[in-house]
Amino acid sequence: EKLKVITIDGPAGSGKSTVARIVASKLGWIYVTTGAIYRTLALLFHEANIKDTDLENIERFISFISERYRQESSTGKVFIGEREITQEIKAPLVSELASILAQEDSVRKRLLPIQRKVVLNNHGAVVDGRDMGTVVFPDAPLKIFLTASAKERAERRWKELNQNGQKTDIKELLREIHERDERDLNRAIAPLKAAHDAISLDSTKSTQEEIAKAILQFAMQKD
Ligand code: C5P
């Protein structure tokens, strides 16, 4: 049977996860935001007061995540066991730590089977991240590379955090986005880049619904 996966890669705040969720719900597929898995690992590191350089500790966290991590497709909520961590993993501190840990080969290697397992247990999936089309699902029949200007991305993050009652400074967010882009684009292993067979879309001036609609049209053409 054909692999039913649509990959959406792109930088922080490009709207990947919202778009992935819309597309998945239209197709009746699950959606998986793989950044949330990196963020969950970062949260566990942070709460255990472990430095991002102490990677010997990673093994127990990985098995913990592998057994207990769950993402609810209909709402996008993230759980570790019974505990909901959807908002906590969006905190700027966790974002930063996630992107630092994501530079490590040992981290990426261990998170790889978790990402594949979540998807392949299901009938069809829309997955978003940085290396979905290049590393995790290189055989996906439809790959999207979604971008938007850094300014637009910072504004979206600001709105999202603000809605959740987290006060942040837009200039600070813009600085963080640049810093994270820099790290994600330039790391040695699985850097953020479009797969050679990906379709690039720019969401700066489009709504997430419009982008989702375009992706659904590409999906129809592939069928
Ligand atoms: O997508 P999101 O911004 O939630 O991801 C958080 C961080 O996790 C990113 O900045 C990136 O460094 C890392 N990540 C990754 N590969 C993925 C998904 C996320 O390296 N597939």
Automatic annotation (TrEMBL):
EC class of the enzyme, as a word: transferase
The Cytidylate kinase domain, residue ranges: 6-219
CC annotations in GO: cytosol
A single GO BP: nucleobase-containing small molecule interconversion
Pfam families per record: Cytidylate_kin
Keywords: ATP-binding, Cytoplasm, Kinase, Nucleotide-binding, Transferase
Major localization class: cytoplasm
UniProt: ATP binding residues: 10-18
EC number: 2.7.4.25
Family matches, as CDD domains: CMPK
Top-level taxon in the UniProt lineage: Bacteria
Catalytic activity, reaction form: CMP + ATP = CDP + ADP; dCMP + ATP = dCDP + ADP
Subcellular location: Cytoplasm
GO molecular function: ATP binding; CMP kinase activity; dCMP kinase activity
Keyword set includes Phosphoprotein: no
InterPro entries: Cytidylate_kin, Cytidylate_kinase_dom, P-loop_NTPase
Family listed: Belongs to the cytidylate kinase family. Type 1 subfamily.
UniProt-recorded name of the protein: Cytidylate kinase
Species this protein is from: Silvanigrella aquatica
